[in-house]
Amino acid sequence: MKRTLLGLLTFALLAAPGAAAQATFADEPITIDPAGSHDLTVTVTAACADILSGGGSLSVDVSTSGLPDWFGAGTATAEFAITDCAPPEATVSKDVTITFTPTADALGLDPYPFEVVAGGESFPFTGPIQVGYADGHTMSMTMDFPYTLTDADEGTLTWDITIDVTANSQTMVMFQNLQTSVGTLSGVNHQIFDVETGDTTRTITATFQAPDFEWEEATIKFWNYSHCLKGTDCPPTNSQNMTWVITNGATSTPAGGETDGGEEESPGLPLVGLLVAVGAAVVVARRRA
Prior knowledge:
Number of domains: 2
Order of helices and strands: HEEEHEEEEEEEEEEEEEEH
Number of helices: 3
Radius of gyration: 41 Å
Helix content: 10-25%
Strand content: 35-45%
CATH superfamily of the largest domain: Immunoglobulins
Structural class: mainly beta
Shape: rod-shaped
């Protein structure tokens, strides 16, 4: 029976023209979670004549081309046997899976077309495919808050803020709704990081200028967050409301300001009263003479 089946298959397949392997798939846009992976199902179709001519079995390697290595595109193999062609068929199809697992250095929001290669033949995927946005930024400062301003500061306080962006695509770090209760703050503003070129770290210098009047405490408030610049859906990430407090511990008088107290008046009679008293004493002395 088995020999009869093989004979029928041989007769049918020898009469059928051979064909190279074909690959089909859902050509739809793909966005891969930067911390995850994505499977693409590829349907590979092989000619039974090719399976027969291969001695009753055929292996079709499936891969991709045209993608950066950081997409982590896998490979697969479709295995066919002559028995897959019973009852006598001209072609047979099997599904395989190509898995994309982005590496840690993958860039986000950069779409790419690519090709699926099956059995030496290329089939375009125009989707396109991209890695999603991985957000992230941190800030470190050379100043600890709250801070007490002293005479040595001479009314001006300066400190560095280092911003490190760990996001995988072009990112803007925001200093929104910056408010200072007294005095002025300069040097703190929004920053754009072109991550694709390695621009991920920057240091800015903040300067607080004390007011020229008496004050006790300066409160600096702002909303800090970051967001992507390439995508169409880029809500705030790493959001935090920050407050810096500076208290006035200086004893010197600010320029143009009021004094902190002043010298006390000398005890005794006022000047007018003192002159009257001296005049009376002179008159009494003359009468006694």
